[in-house]
Every structure is written in structure tokens, then in C-alpha cells.
Amino acid sequence: xxxxxxxxxxxxxxxxxxxxxxxxxxxxxxxxxxxxxxxxxxxxxxxxxxxxxxxxxxxxxxxxxxxxxxxxxxxxxxxxxxxxxxxxxxxxxxxxxxxxxxxxxxxxxxxxxxxxxxxxxxxxxxxxxxxxxxxxxxxxxxxxxxxxxxxxxxxxxxxxxxxxxxxxxxxxxxxxxxxxxxxxxxxxxxxxxxxxxxxxxxxxxxxxxxxxxxxxxxxxxxxxxxxxxxxxxxxxxxxxxxxxxxxxxxxxxxxxxxxxxxxxxxxxxxxxxxxxxxxxxxxxxxxxxxxxxxxxx
Length: 297
What we know:
Layout: H1 13-29, E1 34-37, H2 48-57, E2 63-65, H3 78-94, E3 100-105, H4 107-118, E4 124-130, H5 142-147, H6 157-160, H7 169-172, H8 180-186, H9 190-193, H10 202-209, E5 214-219, E6 236-237, E7 243-244, H11 250-253, H12 259-264, E8 268-272, H13 285-292
Parallel strand pairs: 1-2, 1-3, 3-4, 4-5, 5-8
Antiparallel strand pairs: 6-7
């Protein structure tokens, strides 16, 4: 019987190619899929630049911009949107045993947080909330005038805090600091999501939300839409319209949905950028490099 021949010397070109493909595969597999959820009056088209940034710095990353409730359809009730976004995202999570990342803009940040709170089996690692009114919205902005042309912020509660108003997405997170009791009584989305109004699902929602590994909150003073801009970091107005930062909010102090626990774990990252308008957050490369990129591994 002949002794097997051992070939010594330089690797063949075929072997080098196989090694290169293997190493490339390892690099690609290292990056978790990124799920992007757009904001109000947006759609996938607005996130082409952001998707390009991700695949440029992390080659091979699977980026999924969910094509649902685009443009005017984004005004539909948020709980309906949460339900349908979950149906679209579930298969992505199921195909990613190592987990996924959520990158959610503006109103989309609230949709994502509600999805995380109500999904006991999600496998989201980083939840990146990009200029999202997480503590609510109360301001005279161009977006408000698009939805309610005849209204100013002081009168919107008449529309939002009733059954019909709660069928418009912006009303689902309208948080008028001068009509707190009306908000607590009538708001069907943000009030239970933040634990401002007690409900039977609070414990399970909290446990579900705490499955995430990192919460990244991004916003800045020149946003021009999120009002107050600190809402993107869970700050909000008191009854005199003074801004109380996150740690002074009752939902934080009472840890109603797990925010205080996440902070104690060291898993809340706050990123502030000046000079960025609301519609430019997802196309600003500086914001991407300094606030987003490192959480997408």
C-alpha cells in the first residue's frame, strides 16, 4: 500500500480561494440582521442612504426596511401598526438564531418599543431609537399642521383625547402636560406603554422589554419636530412646561416598563447631536458613525 503523499509548499490558487470564501463567510455571519422601521409620512425610500451606510461599514449585513404603513398610511392607529409590523418581522427573527437589531426612527421608535413589550419571544439585541418621541409629543410643528391644519398644540387634546382621536397615530402619543387626567383616561397607546396608567399586562410587558441587550437613545436640540426634543431621551414637560429629564420621570422612578433596570445594568446609551434636523437623522453619516455603528455588530 502506498503511503499518502503530503504536498508541501505554497497553497494552490484553488485552496486560497476556498480559504478566502470561508473567511468572508465568517465575517458576514458576525453581523446580525438589522430591521429598520420608518417614521410618520416615511417609507423605505427614505432609508436607502442609511442602509448603504450599514452595508458599507459592515459588509454582508442583511438590512430589512419594513415596507408597511408608508406615507399617509402611517397615520393609522399604532396598535394596528404594531400588530402588522410584528407579523412582518417575526419571520426575520426566526431566521436569525443569534438575534437581530432594531433601528427605528421617529414614530417607528414607539412602534418598535410596543412590539418589544408585547412579544415574549423576541430576540432583539440592540434597540436603537432614532429621534423618537418616547415620552410623548407636545408641540406646534409642521407635522402637526399637516394632520390638524386648524389646530395649535393647546387645542389638540380636544381631538386626540376621545375614541375617534385615538384612531390617528399622532394622537396615540400626544401627551398634553396641561391635561394630564384626560391623557391618562383617554390615551390607549402611550399611557399603558409607559405605565402611566396601570394595567394587567405591565409585569409581562416589562419582562419582555428587558430581553433587549442595549437601548440606544438618539436625539438633539435642533430636531425641530420632536417636542420637547428631550422626549427622544425619555425627558418631558411638567405641568409648567419645564423639561424633566429621564431620571426624574415617574415611569423611570417606578421602573414601570424596565427603563430604570436597563440603566442600572449599564445598558442605556444616550447620544446627543446638535445641528441635525428631524428629517436628516437617518442620512447623517456623523450620527451613524458616532451613535449607531458600534451597536450593530
